Amino acid sequence: MAMGHGAFAFSLPLFTGRSLKAVMKSWGFSERKRRAAVRFGSGRDLKDDEPYERKGHTASTPLVRNVDLPTVDAVLKTKRRLMVLMSDTGGGHRASAIALSDALHALYPADELEIIIVDFFVSVAGPPLDTMPELYAYLAKHPNLWRLIWLAGQFPPTRWIFSMYVYWLSSAFFEHALDSFRPHLIVSVHPLCQSAPLEVLKRRGLMGVIPFLTVVTDLGSAANSWFHKNVDLCIVPSERVRRIGLAQGVHPDKLFLVGLPVRKAFWKRAAPKWFTRLSLGLPVFKKTRVILMVGGGDGVGNMESLATAVTQEIANHADRLPGVRLVVICGKNAKLEESMRCRTWSIPVEIHGFVTNMADYMCAADVIVTKAGPGTIAESWIRGLPVMLSSFLPGQEAGNVELVVKSGSGACCEQPKKLARVLRGWIGDDQALKAMSRASRAQGTRDATLIIARILGQYAFHRRSSLVLDRQNANPFVQPVLA
């Protein structure tokens, strides 16, 4: 994904017939060069009561695009400021950032902590990198092209070239973000938000002054760009990802295995299934089986073909599978929702667009059909759902499939008819469903988000010495000492 955009940007002059200088000028590079960032000066951390205006400098409007940055006067002297770097290349990174923000606000009073979530490519780097989300969406629909880009991104020379390219484009604007918000802690939840920001901190003498933490949001496979040896801490969701970090040269003491951050609704225990079904208008009979089919926030993954195959397979065995209902969540894919609503189905089917109570639907379901996104898998595990994976992105999500299959919590079938046959077998076998449900619950880390938030709080408030971790435990418990 990243390398593909870099290749696109470098090759643009060839397609346009314009010189590289002309292309750079059209992207505003001359203006970038003119507007130098306001520096911290000595490289030391600013005191909370220190005025923002410096000798020879004035506090101009920050160059960070589309982000509402608070003014210095609006921030209380005792408030700690945390900057979260992400990008909307898929819905998982923003969801993780929001989940961590919610957890931090649940643990610390609002007058003690200020959090800003920054889309690094759209709000900081600018053209041409601000089209990263659109590029991701295109590549996600073309798996073979994605595979090629993934392999290029794992190759050290091409990864280094792209990292330097991103740094060249974004460094001045990231410096403005630093000077505008003056964070006490920077957290990255995106694989491409390590190298360039850390290089800026190093050049300005702020490495170690402003702690930099990475929270890896890939579950079973992780791009090498997630891991940088100069981070203060790298929080990983699985042992498999921890081993990748070790192979990339991250010191073992900097790798903490906790889990994947999930949305607030998944932090608490689920209500009884019958009660949740009643609140959603679903049948509460004991023999009723509810299949939940999702395609992420964007509603991707050939869902209409999957729904057709599943409903036909269930209808063909209706005498042995009475009371089966399919619930399809189309997300923001309005075209898919409209198309599916216009069809006649052979079993009861509920069609929904984007919903905000996904935790309730997972609680009400008996099995979930989804693409191999890490967030959905982690949330399904917390709810104890057997997981049927319908597709995965080569490289990035291949490890997720292996985790699901090896843990006994589900399977992966990319062919709709085969998927429907396997799913029908699950629905008709109560013991198999219970076994997979137990395996899912064993993998779930419901407390991971709050644990990660406690670790971030330790760093934000300079309490790293009170961080308590049991490194022998696969799911360590972190107890904050708020002295």
Automatic annotation (TrEMBL):
Residues 93-262 form the Diacylglycerol glucosyltransferase N-terminal domain. One of its GO terms (cellular component) is chloroplast membrane. Its EC number is 2.4.1.46. GO terms for molecular function: 1,2-diacylglycerol 3-beta-galactosyltransferase activity. GO terms for biological process: glycolipid biosynthetic process. It comes from the Eukaryota. Belongs to the glycosyltransferase 28 family. This is monogalactosyldiacylglycerol synthase. It comes from Porphyridium purpureum (Red alga).
